[in-house]
Design a protein that fits this description.
Elements (H helix, E strand, L loop, with lengths): L16 H4 L1 H21 L17 H10 L1 H21 L4 H22 L9 H15 L4 E4 L2 E4 H17 L1
Antiparallel strand pairs: 1-2
Helix pairs in contact: 4-5, 5-6
Length: about 170
């Protein structure tokens, strides 16, 4: 008997692909955000309330006061993100019970980087720089694991060796 869930090799995936692929979920979520922002703009409002960002701070007291004043906004943002991403993940076949703890960890870590990036200019580190640093460290610790490259899995040591070869070739020129 033919399984209707898996298309035949020569058969196009069709309209199902529009809600069963991560790429399309990114499109739908982005489109919904643009439509919501435009609708609020036309009505004289904005998404500013849920697009919360910390103020510049120099002391932890200032940071604490700003954060505690915006807790309802951060919780609303967290709730919105959880609802949207957990729904999308569930449609894609991921279990929300496994997704939510990981998402909470990432959200809290991103808040930390966002607040770190809003420090005074003398101590300021860009949030992207601190996030890249934190993300690069586990990758270095797991250098024995394979790395994705264009859909293929190639061990990191092979990529590093190739990078060293390319650097030697450039130096020789």
């Amino acid at each position: 008997m033919h399984d209707s869930a898996a298309p035949a090799p020569n058969q196009q995936p069709g309209w199902k692909e529009l809600w069963l692929k991560e790429d399309w979920w990114a499109v739908w979520i982005g489109l919904a955000l643009v439509i919501a922002a435009y609708t609020l703009f036309v009505s004289g409002s904005s998404i500013d309330w849920i697009a919360v960002a910390p103020k510049k701070w120099a002391t932890f007291g200032q940071l604490g006061a700003d954060f505690s004043a915006k807790i309802p906004r951060y919780l609303a943002q967290l709730g919105l993100f959880l609802a949207v991403f957990a729904t999308g993940g569930a449609v894609l076949g991921h279990k929300p019970r496994q997704f939510i703890p990981s998402f909470l960890f990432i959200y809290i870590l991103s808040l930390r980087h966002q607040h770190r990036g809003s420090m005074g200019k003398s101590e300021r580190l860009h949030p992207g720089a601190t996030a890249a640093g934190v993300g690069a460290r586990p990758a270095d610790l797991q250098s024995h694991r394979p790395a994705p490259l264009d859909g293929c899995w190639i061990p990191r040591r092979v990529l590093r060796q190739d990078g060293h070869r390319a650097a030697r070739r450039r130096a020789a020129l």
